[in-house]
Amino acid sequence: MKQIRTLADLIKIKDEYLSKSKESEKKDAPGGKVRIRVHMGTSGIASGARAIHDFLTIELEKRNIDAIVIKTGDMGYCFAEPTIEVTLPGEEPVIFGNVDKLRADEIIEKFIKNGEYVEGILPVNYQIIN
Amino acid sequence: MSSIKIELREEDVKRIKEICASFRNDPQELINVLHRCQEHFGYLPAEVQEVVSEELTVPVAKIYGVITFYSFFTMTPKGKHPISICMGTACYVRGAEKVLDEFKRELGLQVGQTTKDGKFSLSSLRCVGACGLAPVVLVGDKTYGRVAPDDVKNILKEYEQ
Amino acid sequence: MEEIKMVKYRKQILVCSGAGCDSRHSEEILDNLKLELEALALENDIQVIKTGCFGLCGLGPVVKIMPDDIIYTKVTPEDAVEIISEHIVKGKKIERLVYKDPLTQKLVSASSEMASFKKQLRIVLRNCGIIDPESIGEAIARDAYLALGKVLKEMKPVDVIKLIQDSGLRGRGGAGFPTGLKWKLAFENKSDEKYVVCNADEGDPGAFMDRSVLEGDPHSVLEAMAICGYCIGSSRGLIYIRAEYPLAVARLITAIKQARDIGLLGNDIFGSGFNFDIEIKYGAGAFVCGEETALIHSMEGLRGEPTVKPPFPVESGFRGKPTNVNNVETFACISPIILKGASWFSSIGTEKSKGTKVFALAGKINNVGLIEVPMGTTLREVIFEIGGGIQYGKKFKAVQTGGPSGGCLTEKHLDTPIDFDNLVAAGSMMGSGGMIVMDEDDCMVSISKYYLDFTMDESCGKCSPCRIGNTRLHELLEHICKGNGTMADLDRLRNMSLVIKDTALCGLGQSSPNPVLSTLENFMDEYVAHVVDKKCPAGKCRDLMQYFIISDNCVGCTACARVCPVNAITGERKEPHLINPSICIKCGACIEKCKFDAIIIK
Amino acid sequence: METMKLTIDNKIIEVPKGTTLFKAARELGIEIPTLCYMELHDLNIENKPAGCRICVVEVQGRRNLAPSCATNCENGMVVKTHSTRVLNARRTVMEFILSDHPKECLICPKSGSCDLQNMAIRLGIREIPGTEIAKMSTYRKDTSPSIIRDLDKCIMCRRCETMCNDVQTVGALSAINRGFMAVVSPAFEQNLEHSTCTYCGQCVAVCPTGALTEVDHTPDILRALADPTKTVIVQTAPAVRAALGEEFGMEPGTLVTGKMVAALRVLGFKYVFDTDFAADLTIMEEGSEFLDRLSRHLKGDESAKLPILTSCCPGWVNFFESYFPDLKDIPSTAKSPQQMFGAIAKTYFAEKIGIGRKDLVVVSIMPCLAKKYECQREEFSTDGNRDVDYSISTRELAAFIKQANIDLNNLESEEFDSPMGESTGAGVIFGNTGGVIEAAVRTAYELNTGKKLEKVDFMELRGLEGVREATIDFNGTPIRIGIAHGLGNARKLLNDVRAGKSKFHAIEIMACPGGCIGGGGQPLHHGNSDIIKARAAAIYREDKKKILRKSHENPFIIKLYKEFLGKPNSEKAHHLLHTHYFDKKKKFIVKQ
Questions:
Q1: CATH for B81-157, among 3.40.30.10, 3.40.50.2300, 3.40.50.720, 1.20.120.80?
Q2: Nearest-by-Cβ selection for C212 from A76, A115, A122
Q3: What is d(CA C449, CA C439) in angstroms, rounded to the nearest whole number?
Q4: Which chains touch B (3 or more CB pairs under 8 A)?
Q5: How many Å is the Cα radius of gyration of chain B?
Q6: How far C436 CA lies from chain B's nearest CA (Å)?
Q7: Which residues have C-beta within 8 Å of that of residue D366, sequence separation ≥ 6?
Q8: Beta carbons of A123 and C247 less than 8 Å apart
Q9: How would you write A72-93 as a 3-class SS string?
Q10: Chain centre distance of CA A11
């Protein structure tokens, strides 16, 4: 990444990132990608998030699904960890809790492939500042 | 107090000196130095403290004072499989004490002790932050969540060969 | 790439099965919905799915219809038929089940509108779980370092300090000292060298707010430290972090490196001539190092013993230089305040406590985890709505806030709006934000003993009230738990507590008796039961328990006698058995074995 | 100067900014009780951990009680030092401290001079609630050649730690552990003997309780006195006579030389001699050594190293052997007066009275605890028989006198025995910081210049400044002299020497702040530096009284050289009166 010397440099990086992710959020667009965030703070990892991350990375590739898997910190849903957030192109993100390999597989097959909800959805119960 | 007398090898002394030098032999970096030494040796025997004392020009009594102040530092080697039971409040109210008692009973150890064969050591710690999984037990790097006293035998069995 | 198929189902019905709703029969609602759909042969058209908690437990059970985005509240199993026949089949909204705003009488059904009923507001946790903490680009995409740029380019230090003062931000580490004022004092103390310290020595058992922020959004802290450095005239930042947080440390190291690489830390940041860099100092497992002066001594390679204030760190801190110490959560509030303005921040919260507070909910609560709510949210909202209520439908007994320095609050405090001053007035404190919920099975005498056990262990030993006094408190509580206490002991307990509070050197000692005092205040009857009746109402104190066999229920199966490790149970086969209390060690093995509920604890 | 006006116990006072409540109250005649706070202003020593919490006071408008020792006065403060709240808190805290303290006052060596005991009396403590369930923090007892540590009695006032680290920079002691088991100890809780302790005894001197005490050698002396086959003689160090009276209720600074001699005779010592005699002898040896080195140095002989360092102080010798072993050829090789006395007593004097050295028991009365260790050093024995058999402190002597029902106050003064009881004023001032070098200058000047010294009092060498320097004109040759007392000050001068930056020709070092008068074996000053100043003044008074004030004028010293030793630094003198030093630096074990 390039050195930031001015505010404009910073905003340029911001815009690059935003447009890149906007691109991937477009429905049916060539750049459209499934984005999966695996919540991997200490608590998430202790609950097995790492295995889920690896599983998803390998399986999505195997099953030929164009997706980005991102490691993030925890959301705070300790009672339902491991949790992941899946954003289908053009859709609102959906968070799934208590994800084990079985459920991860189900998420790929049903939700990612068909947009069909599976159990374990955690409704967003907070507002976030933008 | 450590009853174990060890003899440092030349390369160990060299390593300690390197660690101290990497912190500019600055006495104020004592805690960082001790962290690195404990990473290297697994514990902080008296002999290591003496070398650090020499390098940082901090009296060894002061170093011992620091080591005995911070619960992270230890002068006794940990077991091959160090067992830590989280005694954070969340774990406590969900029965961590009973789990700890069970470990004590199974291993015949008190907190802070190591089995004679050096296999297991037992410690309690304050909140690993996996409160959703309370009560939590750590064996080495592995985390066990929602542990009940009945699980203790099985956990130990995993490490028995 | 395989074409992503269109949604298979026409509509989806989401049924909250969070513990709060579940206890109000959400499972039945789910079954009824499914039965009804099957009856109408719609099961392949309409999907019914269980979800986790909506955070609307006060309105539960909650059912949401997608993609219509309609939320029904207080749904009963009987409503299932209507939901299918009216909403799904006819497409008509069922107004009866829509939430009515008590003020405006307006019906609110869309989940976007329901947002205002979401009790949580995430400022500190704005990026947690959203960005990759190891990618500075992702952080920048969510406005990281924008505030720093703005401050360096457009604002004078005094203006920033004024802005922080106007926002009403108070320190999130415990005592709630106004952050802007602290910065101002640090700014005014002239020195060739000053330090900005981030206190990440989160030590309260059951609190993990700071760790989550550092693991999920490390740049928010780095940026704020630089802003603080600019304001007070410091070019060196130090993060004092627990060595027990390896992941947070690793992510911080990565974040610092990335920020340095692109010039957001280091010399001449944003071409402004301002230099700032950050290094990490490790704690080593001493709770008392959360206290500013102890933390500073620890960073200087010494035993983490606190010293008397004044002098305050802003006058004489690290290496004797003015040092501004703020905690992780405080720093995480800074850049939103700068970007969105002081009045935005001060519009959130109560009169004297602005903004939001992150809490770590733990204990006997359903939704254990991290939450962030505006100041002024009530304990009831936190525990029963966001937290989903008490596990296994048990009765709420107390909530402990403020960690070992806090107190236990009860039923009567549930509607207290949470802020710094209200919690203190109620006999507890904000602390760093641990919130441990206790139910009817928790013995409050044992709980205060547990906290004393902690403070006793973590006392640095420097001052006599804390070093010896806490040990004496602990002993007396143990004495009481064993059934040897007297009413006079309760007076002594209170006097010792008050004196320790009044005389101890630092915050740890001054607050260590709080759990005792608040339980004495709120649960006196439980103490009296221990000392007068020699009973532990919660059945936790082993020495006060007695095991009995109800002879009417006992069939004489001998299972209990066989499992008893000390042969305390006698009796003929097919005859009621007896437990000899003088032999019984109260291990509870017999209760587990008895299939006839014949053994009780009294 | 900015001042602060406040009210303490309804009295108004105005004090300079930065004054603590404790000191402001003292100005008003209100003595707030404390256990940990200690300030020796003239010696630049302060111990202020604010840990005991006995000195708490109520400040109007403040949430909790304030430690008066560590709270500065502010304008408009309204302070109460004895409100009900304060008294209850003080008593409860005291009960806490006592609940973790052994209740064996009757048999405690500190009994009667214990700050904790006095505090219990002052606060009227009559019971310690909860004793029956109170666990105690207990530790292993440790006895070293000089000092006994009984940490069960430690109240964590940290005075010893301050003395050992901040004042003496020895670093043998540190607070260890935390919480209830926190205590002050050497590294690894090992014995003091295996630490870098110099036995200076300053920790003992300031310990408010019986946690740190000296090893009591009076029983050994009693046994020797009772043994008809033994001739028991005694030597008394100069600083003892200026402090012993304090133990018998006399004003600090009362000289009790004659009464002390009388008491020692009553106790049964066959000969009562004076270490001052040996001090004169020391000057002869050390002074000659200095002049020799100096003249060789001035001639450009590089093997003649300067500065020369005095070597009379055993704590100081232990210090450089541990911390500056590389400089061990710099100090004078002259033994300390105690050991010179022993060496002469067991040879010259034993011969004179016609007994073997084994039948002569030499006892020393010292203001010092390191002397106990010194006389046990192997190099100071011949065939396992020590030159000085036992060394006891001023405090032990006082206790001994009391045990023997001797009423010191009403004893008639008596004179020391001859010949080893005769001394000059130069020998007397050995007890003060600067005294050894002043004595040396008096002699060296005359020997060097051949001229009579007109002005005997070198005021420029006196005082309580931690490090002092002066230049004395030796007939055109300026001799630069450095003085340090307290090992922390010594370290500063030593670092310069090590770095080759020292400008001095001679340096005097005494381990204890104030010199021997402030020694670890002296009556406890309980943190009052006026006591030390009074003792110093008494020593100079004694010097002034003497007709002979230069060591080389001591007729018995002249006689000793004539009859026995020959000349200063002669071979015989070297054999008997000089020693060598060891490298005692701690070494870690390295396995190849």
A1: 3.40.30.10
A2: A76
A3: 17
A4: A, C, D
A5: 18
A6: 7
A7: D237, D240, D275, D338, D372, D391, D392, D393, D394, D519, D521
A8: no
A9: ECCCCCHHHCCCEEEECCCCCC
A10: 24
Among residues C43, C51, C50, the alpha carbon closest in space to that of C8 is found at C43
Contact B50 D175 (CB under 8 A): no
Q: Identify the band that residue C440 occupies on the pLDDT scale cut at 50, 70 and 90.
A: very high
Q: Could you tell me the residue range of the domain that residue A92 belongs to?
A: 35-122
- Say if CB C235 and CB C277 are below 8 A apart: yes
Answer yes or no: are the C-beta atoms of C326 and C215 closer than 8 Å: no
Q: D186 at the B interface (CB within 8 A)?
A: yes
The set of catalytic residues of D is 286, 289, 312, 332, 371, 374, 379, 516
pLDDT digits (tens, 9 = 90+) for D113-167: 999 999 999 999 999 998 899 999 999 999 999 999 999 999 999 999 999 999 9
Q: Is the dihedral of CA D543, D549, D550, D552 positive or negative?
A: negative
Chains B and A touch (3+ CB pairs under 8 A): yes
Tens digits of residue pLDDT in D404-424: 999 999 999 999 999 999 999
Domains and CATH numbers, chain C: 11-117 (3.40.30.10), 136-343 (3.40.50.11540), 356-439 (3.10.20.600), 444-533 (1.20.1440.230), 546-601 (3.30.70.20)
Cα(D34)–Cα(D157) distance, integer angstroms: 10
List Cβ neighbours of C203 (8 Å cut-off, separation of 6 or more).
B126, C242, C286, C287, C289, C290, C403, C458
The one-letter amino acid code at D89 reads A
**pLDDT value for C4:** 41
Sign, Cα dihedral of C132, C135, C137, C140: positive
User: What CA dihedral angle connects D163, D166, D172 and D174, to 10 degrees?
Assistant: 90
CB C473 within 8 A of CB C452: yes
Residues C1, A80: C-beta atoms closer than 8 Å: no
pLDDT band (50, 70, 90) for residue B130 = confident
Say if the Cβ atoms of A129 and C121 lie within 8 Å.
yes
CA distance D175 to chain B (A): 6
Query: Is pLDDT above 60 for B40?
Result: yes
CB contact under 8 A, A78 and B130: yes
Helix (H, G, I), strand (E, B) or coil at D510: strand
Is residue D52 within 8 A of residue D158, CB to CB? The reply is no
Question: According to the model, what pLDDT value does residue C208 have?
Answer: 85
**Distance separating alpha carbons of residues C394 and C440, to the nearest angstrom:** 7
Average pLDDT over residues D28-53: 93
Residues forming beta bridges with residue C269, ordered by sequence position: C274
Instruction: Report the gap between the CA of B65 and the closest CA in chain C (Å).
Output: 7
Cα end-to-end distance, chain B, whole Å: 32
Query: What is the value of ipTM here, to two decimals?
Result: 0.92
